[in-house]
Structures
1.
Amino acid sequence: MKTIVNTPRELPYIMVEACLPSGAEVVQDSSKEGNIEAEVQNNAPLGDWGEPWWTHQDVLDDRIVYFGASLKPGQSEFATLLRMELPGKVGVPPVSMEGMYTKAVRGLSNLDVLKIAE
């Protein structure tokens, strides 16, 4: 699952919440005991400025939440490897972005459909 965030200016203290599609689970590297934050130093997706844009990541059963102290202008992205339980079509819930300390910053993506083949 890949999410791209575009912003025309710097945004302080933001949270991006990506709900997982039905039947999906996040694939974690067991050699790092599931610590995704340890992977940020080695292979995290980069923003336009060359560093990961988030400072903390929570992987929950039904969603992934990224927290950033400063989201720079331009395009930033994150990608997560998912394992799907069954083939077919599933709806992908919208991704939301909001300011942690202000209601003036808010964004929402479109709904999407994911086709899973065997």
Note: The domain at 2-116 is CATH 2.60.40.690 (Immunoglobulin-like).
2.
Amino acid sequence: PPTKRSRTDYGDEYKQGPPGYSKWQEPAICAKQSMLYSLRAQLSILTSDGNPMQKFNRVCNIVKCVWRVHLTGTMCTLMVDDVVVVTQLYWADELQAKMDACSTAADILSREVLEVRRIGGGYELYTARGPNQLLESPQVWRLMSLSKALLRLKDHFLHHCSSKWRDEPLRSMHAACKQYKLCYREHRVKDVGMAERWIATISDVFIHEVKMRIGRNRHEDVNTSNRLCTKSIECLMQMPRQNPLIEHKNGELRIRYE
């Protein structure tokens, strides 16, 4: 990415405001939206045989903005200046993750409606393909990439002999998740009385849970863990291909069952 440059004047189009600009919007948001509309214009006219990262870097140099990618675990977030444009899952190495993020960002910026919103202490880009369509946040791409990865995991188990993963469910699950850059975890949560909940998640997506009494021995814990993992694989295999994830108001993600 280019080094940070000062930006003192955006030109007349920035002073006029982007499409849909309201005089009640704060100037900072207006300037950021205008910058992103300029990026879109440059992306639409630039012809480049280079990879998506080279093309995105070139248009950012023209518009005098800075793009950067943050990699956290298996999540990749691309920002332009201080605006979050996309958050998505990545499966390959860091270089490929950056190229994929730049390609997705270019697709997002090609949408008709671009709206910068202040979220908490930062800014996020909300987009829509048309003026009458629902605006989507950068996190929608995270849901799409998570859905794609979980469906690949589902296919993995569908195409493998069930006797193999039923004999060693935990080993099979961890090996498959590693292949698709996912993370299987089991969480223990104290429940009412002398009980606790064992919750299985894959990359923070709720899969299944079982309730057990407190005070079991180690052998019983191993059996519970294997049973929970086996049931989680069965739940994955029941996951629909269309809209496989449910997002609750508290931000929790769960898989659907057919």
Note: The chain has a mean pLDDT of 83.
3.
Amino acid sequence: MQDMTIFLMNIFNASSPYSIFIKLIYLYCITAAFILNTHIQNHLKRHNSERTQRFVV
């Protein structure tokens, strides 16, 4: 795990054109994961609230 962290740090510190590209992909992945996570959470909450209302009625 530590080797992976060092590897990532080397990529981020590198001044090659590829490092910028990798940073963009990395940020895109984090953003996509965050948006998907919040979307799924909201969907599940809505679904659960609908289900509980149905049981109450």
Note: Residues 2-56 form one domain.
